[in-house]
Amino acid sequence: MSGSAITRGTEWLSKGGLRPTRQRLALAGLLVGDGQNRHVTAESLHAASTRSGEGVSLATVYNTLRAFCEAGLMQEVVVDGSKSYFDTRMDDHPHFYWEDSAELTDAPADQLEISRLPELPQGTELARVDVVIRLRRTV
User: Fold this and answer.
1) How does residue 82 score in pLDDT terms, banded at 50, 70 and 90?
2) What pLDDT is stored for residue 106 in this prediction?
3) Among 72, 130, 73, 66, which residue's Cα sits nearest to residue 104?
């Protein structure tokens, strides 16, 4: 891993108040080391970790992604009950889910307009609104 990836990863972990363990630094470097936002699954991050020679277990990847989310560094995007993606971009924005390739990408936020939400149940407050637009390529 390059020195700039390690530096970015270390700074990113620091923003979340997380201690930079070897595993966290390795995964942070893969997630934000090039300065780009990305969407990953635990499995895709584990595969990237293995390819990079870091050897982080899948269980550690899952636990680390949860810690990153709890620290406010990432957000989890649930596509269906069994598939979660983790997004390093933290502003509110919609997503495209490509059903044929199981890929999650950002959708243009400036083209989305939500004019009204249902009345919230008493004793609750809005935490966030997730918008996932499912797509299928046409032939």
Assistant:
1) confident
2) 96
3) 130
For residue 27, the SS3 value is: helix
CA distance 98 to 103: 5
Residue showing tokens 């270390």: 10
Average pLDDT, the chain: 93
Candidates 2.40.330.10, 3.40.50.300, 1.10.10.10, 3.40.50.2300; CATH matching 3-86 = 1.10.10.10
List, in sequence order, every residue forming a beta bridge with 133; answer none if it has no partner: 96
Q: What is the pLDDT of residue 5?
A: 83
Q: CB neighbours (10 Å) of residue 75?
A: 18
Is the CB of residue 95 less than 8 Å from the CB of residue 106? yes
The answer, yes or no, to whether residue 3 has pLDDT greater than 80, is no
Q: Return the bridge partners of 63, or none.
A: none
* CA angle (80 as vertex; 120, 26 as ends), nearest 5: 105
Contacts 24+ apart (CB under 8 A), 61-70: 61/27, 64/23, 64/24, 64/27, 65/27, 65/40, 67/18, 67/24, 68/16, 68/18, 68/27, 68/28, 68/31
